[in-house]
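ok so dumb question maybe but i'm new to this and my supervisor (M.) told me to 'just get the structure for 2-methylisocitrate lyase-like PEP mutase family enzyme' and walked off. so i did the thing. is this what she meant?? sequence i used:
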Amino acid sequence: MTNQRERFARFQHLHALDEAFVIPNPWDAGSARLLTSLGFEALATSSAGYAFAKGKRDSSATLSREELLANAAEIVAATHLPVSADLEAGFGSAPETCAETIRLACEAGLVGGSIEDASGDPARPLYDFSLAVERIQAAAEATRGLPFLLTARAENYLCGRPDLDDTIRRLQAFSTAGADVLYAPGLPDLESIRIVCDAVDKPVNVVMGLAGPTFSVAELSAAGVRRISVGGSFARAAFGALLRAAQEVRTQGTFDYAREAIPGATLAALLAAEEQKG
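this is what came out, is it supposed to look like this??
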């Protein structure tokens, strides 16, 4: 676990800086190596990106803990960078299930992971406040003594509950329960992001690349954000390029898309360089 602890120390350091860092989201070993070659300092898995690659929906009903952790382990093995994981809602409503998920994630070589408070139940899309806090507390207790940074997610804005006060209440309670990083995806504007950052005492992660407004790294850093992820948007960008290329061939019978494709030799060199580092 020495190498894992060294990665964990680097990951901790990134969150302690006075400016934001970008943590992009690969979905397999190849995309992890490509992103590593570009000089990013940490990576985070994407359940959405993995689901797209497997022809599935991004849902706990279609993605198992075992397959997502296996995917995460492949990404960990493909890079020398710290890797955090999208652990959905912990793969079960019970606090002890969340704790077990954290232990298994650490065993897979991950140095961080997120647990969200979305229940998956359309009738009650968010876990009740008390249970949501209990789940984060159990996950935090499971990290004790382990090289693992816990991120707690308040999913209000992705679950049709755009309540900033409740989002902040949840994040503050998650911090008290032991979360190391706080995350509220889908905040509508820079002012909301700034209010959240000012209201909590832990580093805040913000995701860019979703529908809606986007802000620069400099703008987010000035607002108090300390970590910026891209979720499944890199994977969607890759699928978008595939779709445009396929549509060109199917509808026009031309192959102009190849002019924008990365040369095979260039891609091979990037991937081989990272493989040698690993």
